[in-house]
Structure formats: structure tokens, C-alpha cells
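Example S7 (C-alpha cells).
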């Protein structure tokens, strides 16, 4: 199985209607418009394949890059692999394939913290998205809770001056910590209240920026605070 054969398999699965939607959300051409459901069917067949994931991402085809995130062997990903992905990914892939795989790799949290300081908007956004995925899958005992607290304080100080995509991912980080890291739920709620409404230009989509306090309280009401996910990939 090669990247070329997978591309040929993906082409007829694309739908123009879905392609228009994901392009509005920031996906870039070339893009076939293959649904996540269809990509997951291929993932189920392949399972994990480090080399194939790298080759698929290198094609530059959006659908293949999303699939690469699903089948990547996170533990084998090198710093160079992840840096290449973060530097070349479009907006939707920063918060999905790149963040998922980085969070499951041996390179976090150091690489995510390094990305946060990047002057490149999408790379910096990848850092915050990666940390959001990390707290969702790693046990609290393995997390640097004082470090996460400092990052929440950094969000409070910087979010309203940050570039748009970074601002959106920072808001998501507050929500992720509040929902997945029970010892910091109250602190994250307080940060969300101090931040207030976060404005981001969502383009031609119907998407809205979620209120961090409201999002955390919804999870709290369900009794799901602190419930970790088996994988960041979805």
C-alpha cells in the first residue's frame, strides 16, 4: 500500500458539497472532499503505519493529510516530522492531525511549548491545540499542573492581543483544562470569567467561539469533569 494508491482510492470518494464546507473552514486545495466517515473506514483497514502517514502528509492533499493524522504511529514521530507537519498544515489540520499526533508523541510537552512562542500564527496555534489534546488523554498525575496553571495565566494576559487562530486555540485550551483536569477546573473557570467573550472572525461559516465558562459548566453539569479520552484522534 502506497500514498499513490491511497490517493487514487480517495479521489472518487470526494463530494463537492462537503468540499465546499471544509474549504470555508480553512482547508486548502488540493482537496477532494472525502468525509471523515470514509477516511475512518480506510483507517480501520490500515490501522497504524508511520511511513505511510508521512508519505500521505507529504502529498499536500488535504484528505490524505487528515488520514495521515489518523494512521500515524505517534510514538515514532520525531521532532523533525512534527515540525514539518506544523509548518505546512492548513488551519483545520493544525487543530486535528497535527495536534492529535503531537499530543501522542514523545516530543510533548516541550515541543508544544516551543510552538506557542512561534511568530508563525498557525505554528503557535498548533502549540495550544496540542496542549489541549494532551490534557484530554494524559492522566493528571502525569501532567505538570503548576505549568498548566501558568499557561492559563498566560492566556488571560495575551488572548485578546493574540492572532485570530491563536486566540481561538487559547480559548479552547482554557476549556480543555477546565473539562479534563479536575484539580484545575475552578481555576480555569476563573480565568474564563476574567477573559470574558472572545471574538474571532469565523469567515463564512456558522461557527461561533464558545464561552469557556459555559462550556466547562455544561460538562460539570453532566458529571463528566476529569473523564479522559482514550485517544485525541476523532
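Recovered sequence:
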Amino acid at each position: 500500500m502506497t500514498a499513490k494508491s491511497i490517493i487514487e482510492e480517495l479521489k472518487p470518494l470526494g463530494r463537492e458539497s462537503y468540499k465546499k464546507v471544509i474549504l470555508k473552514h480553512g482547508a486548502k486545495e488540493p482537496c477532494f472532499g472525502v468525509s471523515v466517515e470514509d477516511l475512518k473506514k480506510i483507517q480501520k483497514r490500515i490501522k497504524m503505519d508511520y511511513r505511510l502517514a508521512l508519505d500521505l502528509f507529504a502529498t499536500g492533499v488535504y484528505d490524505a493529510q487528515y488520514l495521515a493524522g489518523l494512521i500515524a504511529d505517534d510514538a515514532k514521530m520525531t521532532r523533525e516530522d512534527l515540525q514539518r507537519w506544523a509548518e505546512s498544515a492548513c488551519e483545520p489540520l493544525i487543530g486535528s492531525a497535527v495536534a492529535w499526533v503531537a499530543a501522542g508523541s514523545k516530543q510533548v510537552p516541550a515541543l508544544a511549548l516551543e510552538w506557542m512562542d512561534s511568530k508563525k500564527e498557525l505554528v503557535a496555534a498548533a502549540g495550544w491545540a496540542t496542549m489541549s489534546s494532551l490534557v484530554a488523554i494524559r492522566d493528571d498525575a502525569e501532567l505538570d499542573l503548576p505549568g498548566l496553571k501558568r499557561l492559563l495565566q498566560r492566556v488571560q494576559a495575551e488572548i485578546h492581543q493574540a492572532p485570530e487562530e491563536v486566540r481561538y486555540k487559547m480559548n479552547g485550551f482554557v476549556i480543555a483544562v477546565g473539562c479534563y483536569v479536575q484539580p484545575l477546573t475552578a481555576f480555569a473557570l476563573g480565568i474564563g470569567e476574567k477573559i470574558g467573550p472572545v471574538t474571532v472572525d469565523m469567515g463564512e461559516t456558522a461557527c461561533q467561539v464558545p464561552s469557556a465558562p459555559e462550556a466547562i459548566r455544561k460538562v460539570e453539569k453532566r458529571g463528566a469533569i476529569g473523564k479522559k479520552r482514550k485517544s485525541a484522534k476523532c
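Notes on this example. The radius of gyration is 17 Å.
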